[in-house]
Amino acid sequence: MDTATTSRKIAGLALPALVVLAAEPLYVLVDTAVVGHLGSVPLAAVAVGGTVLTMAAWLGTILAYGTTGRAARRFGAGDRAAAVQEGLQASWLAFSTGVVIAIGMQAAAGPLARALAGNPEIAGAAAQWMRVAAIGAPGLLLAAAGNGWMRGVQDTRRPLRFVLGANLLSAALCPILVYPAGLGLVGSAIANVVAQTVSGVCFAVALLREDISWRPHLRVIGEQLRMGRDLLIRGGAFQLSFLSATTVAARFGTATVAGHQIAMQLFFFTALVLDAVAIAAQSLVGAALGAGDAAGARVLARRIAFIGVVCGVAFAVVIAAGSGVVPRLFSSDTAVLDQAGVAWPWFVAMQPVAGLVFALDGVLIGAGDVRYLRDLTVVAALGFFLPAIWTAYVLDWGLAGIWAGLTLFVVVRCVALLMRLRTGGWAVVGAVR
After folding, report:
1. 3-state secondary structure 70-138
2. pTM of the model
3. In the predicted model, is pLDDT for residue 348 greater than 80?
4. FRET partner for 31 with CA separation of 20 to 30 A, picked from 49, 114, 136, 426?
């Protein structure tokens, strides 16, 4: 496959994936804007409830990533039915997990809200919102599994329609349910449930139309759980790292943690966009290895790595150019803007490296080399990032020290990923690794 064809295939998978990835955060912005006009208590309640239910979305991302790589290998081996079966087994797992969350949250919402909110009024509103919003968990996780297997068989059009359509419907319903219908905060939760359920049903109907057996296969589900476990541990290391960075920033004062939050949220946004390249890598690399084409997988990996760096450089240029404008969109406080300015050079400098890291993460997930990714992330977090940021606190290096630690975290992972890519140990062929 020539370079132009490869680039078109990567773009053909990455661009629809980007729209799907962006749909949920954009809907959350609409939801936040609508609820914000109800007052500070409802807005705080959604913030608390959303923090808890983000865990379900995190589980969905892990499920989607694991399913994409496994389905792509089956698809690359010429067995589309087996690839769809991977999606079916992931869907059984997703639906059962979602039901457990939906039921469990009816009892757990109150204690969780009280533990997180402190304020009884906010806790009561947050618990009410969570109990309703949790009903959408089965649909949310079904959609994640559906996205996973469809990416694996390189079907990008249907996920785009399903997710975008459901979120547009919900965005239209949210203000109607909150205001004219008079449901207030509960209306926001119902709109969430509608989006997640409609999307999940669409993916379930797509499975119904496939010519496959609907019987659960416990062996396959067990293999998916093992891959999910490694991705979950990896994700946990990320969560610990980012939470620790915020904790250290808070110890330097309100302006420091606010400036850190501005740069951190923009970092998450760039990661979201770069994840689209990683998703294309999962699908294409998995398919190449499933087809027994290790050489083709290595060529794809190099091309995807190059695209990741180009995207990272583009982000660096835009972020550097916007240094005097972008932070002002988030705050007018001079002290906060000064602290954001401290983080900004580090944020710019890490972008090309981060682009390469995200791309190579996608390559190794597609190859099923998740154990290596798990171990690398844990070592980089516990051995480099956390010691660096707590040293920054002890030596009073401020936000510059925290972002230097974050940059070190990215660089360490980059070096280790390049070494892994060069050894070729990740390129194991076959329908299942």
Report:
1. HHHHHHHCCCHHHHHHHHHHHHHHHHHHHHHHHHHHHHHHHHHHHHHHCCHHHHHHHHHHHHHHHHHHH
2. 0.86
3. yes
4. 114
